Amino acid sequence: MYLYEKLISILLLSLPGIMSETTENSQLTALKNQDEQCGSYCFGILKPFIEKVSSLQPRKEKAKKFREMESLDNYCLIKEDFIDQIIHLIAFSNNIENKWMVELKNKDFQILNQTVKISSLEKRLTEKENEMKAIENKLIVDLKNKDSEISNLKSQEKENSAIIGKLRKNLTDKENEINNLSSCIGKETGIHEIKLPGSSAFNVSCDTCLAGSGWTVIQRRQDGSVDFNRTMRDYRKGFGALDGEFFIGLDKLHLLTKSRKHELYIYMKKFNDESRYARYSHFFIKGEEDSFKIKSLGNYTGDAGDAMADNLYKKFTTIDEDHDNWFTGNCADFYAAGWWFHNCGNSRLNGKYQTADLAAKVRGINWISWTLDSLKFVQMMIRPVE
Ligand SMILES: [Ca+2]
Known about the structure:
Layout: H1 2-14, H2 21-56, H3 59-182, E1 190-194, E2 202-207, E3 215-221, H4 232-237, E4 239-240, E5 246-247, H5 250-259, E6 262-269, E7 275-280, E8 284-285, E9 294-296, E10 300-302, H6 331-335, E11 347-348, E12 366-367, E13 377-384
Antiparallel strand pairs: 1-2, 2-3, 3-5, 3-13, 4-5, 6-7, 6-13, 7-10, 8-9, 11-12
Bound molecules: calcium ion.
Calcium ion binds at residues 322, 324, 326-327, 329-330.
């Protein structure tokens, strides 16, 4: 019985893949021992069987093969899985490719459209460039022409400036000439001919002694040699002698004061030879149609007082033409003089010439803002104001 069990175990141990290598070695050792124990009898019976079993295949090699098979299976499985993935990837790739192909076609179509548009735009651009070039060329030509015109104009302007300068100089010379001709400016004391626009030439008395040069004397009283109690006609035309007593005449006075702005200077002297003056900055006499009214006196300066203040805007009154503001009488008749009477006012330089012994006693040549005495000497003068 014991032996039989041993034999079974040996058989089992000899089966491949059941025992480990260590166990196998120990069993072979044990079998060898059993052989020794069993002796030649039992061993001799079982030995061929055992050897047959053992010879079928070495167990070590089988185990190796078995592991290899297992690895191969695993490998196959991995391969299969990998192949599946590859197939899936190829399918996905095909899908993507198809989508890309569609997209590509669309893009191609779009590119074609864009190309057509670009071609059209390029054509228009070329046309526009040609137009611009043509305009530019025209502008260049125009500009050259304009430059030439400007150059010509500049030279013309230069010539014109020279001509204008010459004309201005001539004009100034003429103006000076006219000024000199129409006034006492630049003339010595004495009698000179002057000419005003719109009038024939006439002689005037010029004075450079009493208040500087350039004064035209319009009235002088010095000795009573001339009667000043005259009609309007005489006062219009003027009377007396230019080198003595005289009145220039209202017509000439109007022309002179109208032609240019004039100032008025009145020099006065008493019989005691005391002298004073009154000066008005803008003296202007209207024409016959306004009865030779004093339109302007300007500002008063001087040391004789402003005795003509009441005469501003008054018409000229004579013994035969009463324009004064004395409603019941005629100032010209009362003072025996023609003047710009008010009612009758404080100045009457055309009054009757009195002698020294009568000067303080009777009406005469008066400037009331200075003295009640009749004056010994009076000279009224005008001069153009620059
Ligand atoms: Ca009157």
